[in-house]
Amino acid sequence: MQFEFWQNNTMIKVIVFGLWETLGSKHFSASQALREHFGIQASPDFLEKYERSMQLEVWGDIRRMATSFLEAFTISPTQQNISTVVDIIQKGIDQAELFTGMEELLKKLQQHYQLAILSNTNNFEATVIDTWNIDKYFSNKFYSWRLKSLKPSRKNFHEVCKAFAVEPNHCLYVDNEERSTDAAKKYGFNVIVFKSFPELIRQLNVMNIF
Fold first, then answer.
1. pLDDT tens digits for 47-84?
2. Which of 11, 15, 133, 185 places its Cα 20 to 30 Å from the Cα of 173?
3. Strands of 140-143's sheet, edge to edge?
4. Partners of 20 in beta bridges
5. Would you say residue 187 has pLDDT above 50?
6. What pLDDT band is residue 5 in, cutting at 50, 70 and 90?
7. Could you give phi then psi for residue 138, rounded to 5 degrees?
8. Which residues are bridge partners to 73 per DSSP?
9. Nearest CA to 88 among 19, 176, 28, 24?
10. pLDDT digits (tens, 9 = 90+) for 15-28
C-alpha cells in the first residue's frame, strides 16, 4: 500500500492510537471470555471493574494479576481458577496480530507527526508492541498502569498534552471505543473512531493528514 503526503494538516502535531482493535487485534475479547467462563452477570460497571483489577498496576507475576481479577469479582482464587484467567490472558497475547498495512502507515506518519499509544491494558499485554516490532514508531506510550488512571478519564488526555507540550486541538486520537473518543473530543482532541483499516485511511485523507 502506498501513501503520499501532499498537504499535511499543519494543525495536528501528535497522533495518538489506542492499542486493541485499533493497532491490532486479539481476535476475541478477553474480558468477555472471562465473564462468560465464570458466569459473571453483565452490568454497566463490569468493564471498569475488569480494568481496575488488572490494568492499574505493574505486575511482576501474571498469577497475582489473575488473583486480583478473581478477588474483584468475589470468585475463589483456586489454582484452577487462577490458571484459567492466566490462560485466557495469555491466549490474547499469543494470537494478537497487527492489522495489515498498519506498520507501513505508522512508518509514514512518523515522518510528519509525533506518534503515541494511549491504552487501558496490562503490562503483559503491552509486550505485543515489541512483538510486532512497532515500538520504534512511538515517541511515548501512555498505558493505564503507568498513568495509574483509566480511559476515559480526562487525566489520561491531559498527560498526553503535557508530555508533548501541545494544546488538545493539536492532537488526533484514534480508537475503536466511543466512550474514549467521546471523552477525548470533550477534552478538545480531534478524533477518529476506528472501524477498519481502510476506513481509517479514508478519514485520514479527509482530514488532510496525508
1. 999 999 999 999 999 999 999 999 999 999 999 999 99
2. 133
3. 140-143, 114-119, 14-17, 171-175, 190-193
4. 24
5. yes
6. very low
7. -110, 130
8. none
9. 28
10. 999 999 999 999 99
The dihedrals phi and psi of 115, each to the nearest 5 degrees, come to -115, 150
88-106: burial string, b at 16+ Cβ within 10 Å, e else: bbeebbeebebbeebbebb
Query: What is the distance between the alpha carbons of residues 207 and 192, in angstroms, rounded to a whole number?
Result: 10
User: Inter-axis angle of helices 79-95 and 62-72, to 10 degrees?
Assistant: 110
Give phi and psi for 79, each to the nearest 5: -60, -35
**CA-CA distance, 90 to 26, in Å (whole number)?**
10
Contact 65, 50 (CB under 8 A): no
Which tops the pLDDT comparison, 2 or 52? 52
pLDDT of res. 3: 46
Q: Would you tell me how many other CB atoms lie within 10 Å of the CB of residue 134?
A: 20
Contact indicator for 192, 173 with CB cutoff of 8 Å: yes
Name the residue with cell 511515548: 140
Looking at this protein, which amino acid is placed at residue 19? L
- With contact defined as beta carbons under 8 Å apart, do 120 and 17 qualify? no
Q: Are 17 and 200 in contact (CB under 8 A)?
A: no
